[in-house]
Amino acid sequence: MAAKNPYELRDPREQYPKPPFPEQPQPAPGLAARMVPEPDHGEDSYRGSGRLEGRRALITGGDSGIGRAVAIAYAREGADVAINYLPDEEQDAQQVIKLIEDAGRKAVAIPGDLKDEAFCRQLVERTVQELGGLDILVSNAGKQVFRESVDEITSEQFDQTFKTNVYALFWITQAAIPHLPAGASIITTSSINAHQPSPTLLDYATTKAAIAAYTEALAGQLAEKGIRVNSVAPGPFWTVLQPSGGQSQEKVRTFGQDTPLGRPGQPAEIAPIYVLLASQEGSYMTGGVYPVTGGKVF
Ligand code: NAD
Ligand code: MG
Fold first, then answer.
1. pTM for this prediction
2. Over the stretch 188-225, which tens digit does the pLDDT of each residue have?
């Protein structure tokens, strides 16, 4: 699907598949391997140039979608990478582990549920142990369940969405900060939904606004330690989050159509900003929320 040469001049509207897409329900969290068309995570195209040589990174949700694209990019830029994911996602995760190792880097697989505070703290400790330290933390795991009406959101769903998207970010950053050296980078994953909330994603959109505020406040705190904190706010990206209950199948069919570029983004198209924010080239970038939306303005 992807061009082998990522630097070739091309029309971005024509670069990747456009709607309509086939309906493709999967139970959450879903597997990227079962998507039609399969997402492009940069497997055949991402070229590293030593921008993260010797860094040690932890990426939550690193098995699929945006997290997988970031894992591939980081490994090819020279970083050792630990990924976290849910046990049901082992098949996707093993593909990522192989891609990191193929790049000549150390890969660590740490499955487990981020809704559990004790696990979040262990995840950081295990990463530090296995990689010998931590320089880059990418908080990317997320839960998104669409509901037409506020009446249909159970307290259980509300709680799980907040635990996964907000509490886990708090637990993991709190555990990680004592390990992070000056020059380290924390990158969170917000959403266009923080600014332009979809009515059918009430609880999810609220967590994404919380993530943006948390990121900005934490950046203000950690500047005095020389640690930068930023957030990426994706628009519609072609990942398994959407067909596995994140949107109705009707919305999956037309996913990305309402953007100026007329199609959803592919995970490979967002990984480069996670590289920039993690690398020393981003040394003056902190406290920012960076949109990657195919032209949707917020
Ligand atoms: P994805 O489904 O590929 O990735 C999400 C990952 O979250 C899963 O792979 C899973 O490993 C992890 N996860 C969920 N619940 C978990 C739990 N309890 N414990 C541990 N891990 C858990 O989808 P994606 O689109 O790549 O999502 C990555 C991030 O991007 C999410 O934060 C999502 O909200 C955000 N985002 C996505 C889009 C989009 O259109 N795809 C738009 C805006 C923001
Ligand atoms: Mg996954």
1. 0.99
2. 999 999 999 999 999 999 999 999 999 999 999 999 99
What's the number of domains the chain is made of? 1
User: What pLDDT, on a 0 to 100 scale, did the predictor assign at position 4?
Assistant: 77
Flag whether pLDDT at 2 surpasses 70.
no
Cβ–Cβ < 8 Å for 221, 280: no
In CATH, what number is assigned to the domain containing residue 137? 3.40.50.720
- Amino acid occupying residue 154: T
b/e for 275-286, b at 16 or more Cβ within 10 A?
bbbbbeebeebb
| Protein residues near ligand 2, an ion, with CB under 5 A | 29, 63-64, 89
Ligand 1 nearest atom to the CA of residue 141, by list position: 7
- Tokens at 70, concatenated: 């970031």
Say if strands 185-189 and 136-139 run parallel, antiparallel, or are unpaired: parallel
- Alpha-carbon distance 255 to 234, whole Å? 14
H/E stretch holding 184: none
Q: Residue 95 CA: which ligand is closest?
A: 2
CA of 247 from ligand 1 middle (Å) equals 13
Beta-bridge partner residues of 268: none
Q: Retrieve residue 101's tokens.
A: 């190792």
What's the number of CA atoms in the CB half-sphere (13 Å) around residue 44? 7
pLDDT grade for 7, boundaries at 50, 70 and 90: very high
Residues of the domain holding 218: 50-292
